[in-house]
Design goal:
Helices cover 41% and strands 18% of the residues. The protein has 7 helices and 5 strands. Helix 1 links the parallel strand 1 and strand 2. The protein starts with a strand and ends in a 15-residue tail after the last helix.
Length: 180
Amino acid sequence: MTPITIHWFRRDLRIHDNTALSLAHSEGNVLGLFIFDRNILDELEDRNDARVTFIHDALTRLEHDIRTEGGSLLVRFGDPLEVWKQLVDEFDIKAVFTNEDYEPYAGRRDASVGSFLQLKGIVFTAVKDHVILAKDDVLKDDGTPYTVYTPYSKKWKSVLKESDLNERKYVAKWSADGFG
C-alpha cells in the first residue's frame, strides 16, 4: 500500500487559496476527506437544515474540482475520532493536514484526533487559514487581550506581515489510486 497524505476539509471547501491543502500537496499525493460530523448533525433540530444542504452543494462542487484534476474526495459520516480509527486501518497514512477551526467543540475534536494520529505515528498538522491573524497573535505586552480598539488596531497593524496577505500557491498532486 502506497503511503498517502490526507487533507481533512472542514470549513474550507475549496482547493485554491487553502493553506493546509497547499502544505499537504508539498508532501506528495493527497486524498481529500470530508467527515459529516454526527456530533454536530445530531444537534440540529431540523433534519432539512439549510446549512446541511449548503455543505452538500459545496461538497459536490469540491468533488468536481478535485476529480477534474485527477483526484478523489472521500466523504464519511460519523464521530470524527471513530472515522479516523477506520481510516488508519484502511490506508497507509503518513500525514494529515487541516486548517485550524476555532470553535470550542472543534478544538476538543482536533486535540482528540491529533493525539490519536500521533499515537499511530501519523503527523497531524493544523494551520491558520480562516483568519489573517489568530487571536493569540495580537496581545498586550502582558499577554492579555486588548479591551480598547485603538491600541488593538495599532498592534494588529504592527504584527501584520506581507506574507499574511499573500494567496497560497496551488500545485495539485492528487491521489486517485483505489479511491473510486
